[in-house]
Amino acid sequence: MLKEDLHAIKKIGQKDLNLASVIAFGEQLSKETEGSLSAVEALISTGVCGIIHSVFGGQPLLIVGVAEPTIIMYHIMYQFCASKPGLGAHLFLPWAAWVCVWTAFFLIVLAIFNACTVLSRFTRICEELFGMLITVLFVQQAVKGVLFEFLRAEDEDPNSEDSKFQWRYINGLLAVIFAFGLLLTANKSRTARQWQYGTGWQRALVADYGVPLMVVFWTALSFTKPRKVPSNIPRRLFCPLPWQAESLYHWTVVKDMGKVPLGYILVAIIPALMVAALYFFDHSVASKMAQQKEYNLQKPSAYHYDIFLLGVMTLVCGLLGLPPSNGVLPQSPMHTKSLAVLNRQ
């Protein structure tokens, strides 16, 4: 196998790893917003922003996607809308669109005034600490997701067969088995280069592509169950297609932005400031970690331009009723490292 083919496989593997995390965050987003947004919208946002950034971005190696900080902010925003009689849950997406409009404005202003120069004050330990924060959020939500499988979902019928204690316990037990099985086998596949089985390119293929391959394997294994087990055991992610009634509303959110009262449009500045500050640091730190000195990249950095482009992408996602995407950790430095050829001395 040619070296170029191996690089292509590495890049595909990192993209699929980002895809798996976006699906997981999309499921969490659906729970936090009571179905207003789902994994479908998270995937569309990641795809649209990924194409825009790969074509027009100053740092095309940067991986963008819907990350945990976005989920947290959208959960707070949804709770605010649901508690206000002037808004309500039905105006959550139009109000979130106004938040994205203000966020895009602040990001563009930051780019115009070269605010990314503050990154020169960041040391490597600051970047690693920020990455550790994201990792802690990943682990926290993973544990919460597994524990949730032992509980009855809010939209489930309490009198249904799969809501009984024994089936909920089995569902949670299967979640633990699948979670730890995927974790152990995925970590084992990453050490395939030291295996004594297969040829060199086969071991490299397993090492670079093993994580998404294990996701497919354990997902297929979840369908091998006795016939007497209820169909909802184990639970599966519900994803309405973009052209179905549950998702069609997102494409016309811009028409309902005029229904948001003027006072709440101005109030949207407050969460927009927090989201803009969060995206500014998250996107910039991810970009900086993706072009560390040991990778010896030839293309110069483009922090200010990428923040400007991030503002444009945030505006597009808000008008389409999608959660915005930004540079993510740890996928971005992992992507660059997977494509790099490093020599130890």
UniProtKB/TrEMBL annotation:
Entry keyword set: Membrane, Transmembrane, Transmembrane helix
Domain of life: Eukaryota
This protein's record includes keyword Transmembrane helix: yes
Membrane topology type: Multi-pass membrane protein
InterPro entries according to UniProt: HCO3_transpt-like_TM_dom, HCO3_transpt_euk
Regions crossing the membrane: 95-117, 129-147, 167-186, 206-224, 262-281, 302-322
Coiled coil: none
Occurrences of domain Bicarbonate transporter-like transmembrane (ranges): 19-148, 172-343
Entry-linked Pfam families: HCO3_cotransp
Subcellular location(s) of the protein: Membrane
Family note: Belongs to the anion exchanger (TC 2.A.31.3) family.
Name the UniProt record assigns to this protein: Boron transporter 4
